[in-house]
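Issue 218. Parser rejects a valid record. Input:
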Amino acid sequence: MRLTLLLLILLSSLSAQKVKWIVWFDTEDFILPASDDAALRLARELEKLNVRATFKVVAEKARVLEQRGRWDVIQALARHDIGYHSENHSVPPTPSVYLSRMGMLEGAAEFVRREGPGNREVERIFGRRSSTYGQPGNSWGPQSTIALRRMGIPTYVDEAGHIVMGNQPFWYGGILHVTNLGPNAIRAELKRPERLPAALVAFDAAVSKLKQQGGGIVQTIYHPTEFVTTEFWDAVNFKHGRYTAPESYQLPKQRTAAEVEEAFQTFLGFVRHVLAHPDVEVTSVDRLPTLYVEETPKLRQPVWREGIQFEQGLTAAEILTQLLGLGPVYVDGPERRGVTTYREGQVERTLWQRAVADVRHFVESEKRLPAEVWLGAETLSLADFAMTLARDGGEGPARIERGTLLFERHIANDGRKEFNWVIHPPGFDGSALLELGRLQAWTLKPARLR
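Output the parser choked on:
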């Protein structure tokens, strides 16, 4: 019995050291019927290889499949993992556009209003819960994290540059994120099959590096429509935020039969290489919550020596709630950026204790952090309050400490570059969304493989 247990522990350890690989498809083209056939073939080919993929489906695509009577496609995809990929993808307004003028709570409610019915449609048609969400294009908004929790979607899987966290999964907004993997997001180029060997070399290099680091995830991303077209369906119909009515939809340019077959064989060659790699374990998006279990360890002092940051396996918000004596509970970041108007270098103990009690009550009742903290008729920014609390000795006047929010460096700064999707209106600037993203970075920390 003891020998068996040791063997199981050893096998589990060896499995944990392997690099995980996921493959997912943004299944979105509801215009071209040939994209239905592409999705069907992908699902069947991968099933033959015993690979469980994730098909992130646009609600309108799911409805069109149902209307066309393509139950063969629906059933084939449903044997894999199903995610949600927005209500109608590129039909304006896209998520970033309608979220860009809203705060966290208003935006979260609007996201649920617009996207909740579509997610329920996808779940109804495919007969399974959505394992994940990913935005259309780079149309991102941090309000979606609150909304996804309300919708019961546990992960956010995509590939965009809004949050930079070492090219591996992270926790943000209470949701496990697999996005911006950078060099660990690898695929074979369907338009350049001669580059397949280079893609295999890049895959092997990523696996080798991650294994040296103790494991991690490599992901591969495609769209079924790519296998049958030479241009994207939405760029043809919704470029620069243009609305096109269904009766006026234009079909994207299609590949020849020979080009289609070449694309599939290029992809399958890449997959077979992955399957043959001794250090790779194929997994699927719906298994991510079991691979990455969020832990909230007990805080060790001292904390935040150089500035406010996630550390010790805790988000900055989790550290603050423990400093407040509330335990490792999840709370959202503040809705806005507060300011410090308090000019004194220290605050009398009774007033300080009153402020701490007020913050504790706010967090318990609102389940988020306040933007600022009142000291009588003056305020401390949340950063200054948090650093003062962390450094407070507990006796005599509390000395005011200035807090630097180091975690904000993980959020992108260029509101035009990070939202430069061809579908967005010309000159669209998502800087307001990035600012909200920085406020929610109180909830940011790396995810660790179990």
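Fixed in the parser; the record now loads. Confidence is low (pLDDT under 50) at residues 4-15.
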